[in-house]
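okkk here we go again. third time trying to get the pyridoxal-5'-phosphate bound version out, last two times i messed up the smiles copy paste (missing a bracket lol). double checked this time i swear
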Amino acid sequence: MKPLGPIPAGFEALHGELAISGRKVSSLVEDAGRTPLFVFSKGMIAERIASLRAAMPERLKINYAIKANSFAPLLKHVAGLVDGLDIASGGELAMVQAAGVSGERVSFAGPGKRDEELEAAIAAGVTLNLESENEARRALAIAERLGKTPRLAIRVNPDFEPKGSGMKMGGGAKPFGVDAERVPALMREIVDAGCEWRGLHIFTGSQALDADALIETQANTLGLAHRMASEAGMSLPKLNMGGGFGIPYFNGDTQLDIEKVGTALGERFETLPDTLADAELFIELGRYIVGEAGVYLTRIIDRKESHGETYLVTDGGLHHQLAASGNFGTVVRRNYPLAIASHFDAEPVEVANVVGCLCTPLDRLADKAHLPRAEVGDIVAVFCAGAYGASASPSAFLGQGPAEEMLV
Ligand SMILES: Cc1ncc(COP(=O)(O)O)c(C=O)c1O
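finally!!
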């Protein structure tokens, strides 16, 4: 038997079934017309943002990184609750524009921005987080051709490694950002070229659950921003401090202590150096905002035995839930939180493997999980499906197509 990850707080049984935003899964599936189905809870997202705001210093602004989940109704909902949105492509720019978000509230990071993407972003008044000197020069040339003043910030490849992050994106050689020691010169170059100077972006990593490690990373980030600004002889109008707030996916993971992080950050903000004194200070979060508010529902199509093991074969799988299958950034596969949604309050009585419908051994949703008895037709819920589900899975694989999505 292998343990399942912890089911996020806020999910309860209603007449024996899992309920999301007070509605039974059977009725949600009926409304959607089919499984597989992602259901995202509006209320849980709003509560999450409210608790973040309560824990963080008032001065801190919160951006949503839409790569985590760009489902249009969800994006519109989140956009109304956060201060800004971070995008990573021209496609994501079109999504935020469709959600009615003005370019002023959007910043665009990501290596390899094409000329058309730079042009669309500059025309929309989006802040570009520049990833290299070449990109800076291309952006300035495009802006000149358009007769626009570009809003430019520099993404920094920090000279420190974050501790406690599941995915590190800073320290040493990286394709992201400009190496810290070259940043002051680039700051002077783009400001002299007449851009609207938007400060620095320092994103070091993702999926951190350890408050002390995050506190240290944030202190290092503020210190580095100050050093670069002093060297360039400039102050920073904005500093995007990155994010990396994680959520518990696996057995043994615990919730990040955001009160502790917020208190430490508040103390830092009391003693900011001159270069940062007037800066707008941001964090950018994806999974922490939406991850736990989403559930993936998939129906059991077959129940079979092989060499003494039970397999519950579902109509979903890694084509919608690559991360839950263990094939998106994990070295050792562990079980996500999962339940038999049709019998959410039933006791576990058997050990079963839950697999998807793809003909690959990679397509697993739970290994040797202790579950209530489930039959063909029952619905399985995979939790922590609000982030990097549909937006980070190969939905075209084997002609399966995307899942339904619903915000309730
Ligand atoms: C630049 C940047 N911002 C934000 C995020 C969002 O990370 P998370 O969803 O873990 O908060 C990422 C994730 O890779 C990123 O690369």
